[in-house]
């Protein structure tokens, strides 16, 4: 059969040519255990060899998902802005960890019964690999995700690896006992059959939240009908009760907003807040602490 051009997209290409967009690079990371992780990397338009750039891991990582595919929607989004803005100039990286789709059944089903474990380990390993690159500021590698990506960001911080300097969790699950059973039991089985797995998969260890250099931000809508507000509320209560410093923890509730943050301009505020966090992190320097935060109370 002859190849026919259905649409050459010339008008779209002409419009895009007026903008300074990141350079998109697809690659693979070969893990020492033998499997490969697909990577989508967005380099700033004026990327300069020899310069150190901050990095953002923009993640999702949920079972059967894929965020590194070669499609247009993966190349023009909020991460495009983060790489293009001359005051930010982030290298934005997406890594599809174990458990994601389109790499075979074995790769996809490794996470069954233990959500949050292998996925977090892969993101940490990938961040450490990126930190070795001569164009990366290894002390300024941030991580952000929404929904399952928010949960995974929390599990990454929980590992207390030192690989990431800032974490942003948007609309996150914190405990699979709080999520709908048709999704949860597909991957975790029932609570009766896998109580230890549920306990391990919950975000509960706080040392990583205490130690992350640039702190972390939690964003959630109080009317989220997908990931109920109970999830971040319980997590924040745990973090406060375990003594996580207010210098580390920032929390933003969006009154009456659902999972899509569509109420009263919440979405615009949310993305501006994300940009501010990354702007502040890029410029963060070690500072002394106020005396009250040095006291054991």
From TrEMBL:
One of its GO terms (biological process) is proteolysis. Extracellular dipeptidyl-peptidase which removes N-terminal dipeptides sequentially from polypeptides having unsubstituted N-termini provided that the penultimate residue is proline. Contributes to pathogenicity. It catalyses: Release of an N-terminal dipeptide, Xaa-Yaa-|-Zaa-, from a polypeptide, preferentially when Yaa is Pro, provided Zaa is neither Pro nor hydroxyproline. One of its GO terms (molecular function) is serine-type endopeptidase activity. This is dipeptidyl-peptidase IV. Its EC number is 3.4.14.5. Residues 88-268 form the Peptidase S9 prolyl oligopeptidase catalytic domain. InterPro entries: AB_hydrolase_fold, Pept_S9_AS, Peptidase_S9_cat, Serine_Prot_S9B/DPPIV. PANTHER family: DIPEPTIDYL PEPTIDASE 4-RELATED, PROTEASE FAMILY S9B,C DIPEPTIDYL-PEPTIDASE IV-RELATED. GO terms for cellular component: plasma membrane. Belongs to the peptidase S9B family. It comes from Tuber aestivum (summer truffle). Keywords: Aminopeptidase, Glycoprotein, Hydrolase, Protease, Serine protease, Virulence.
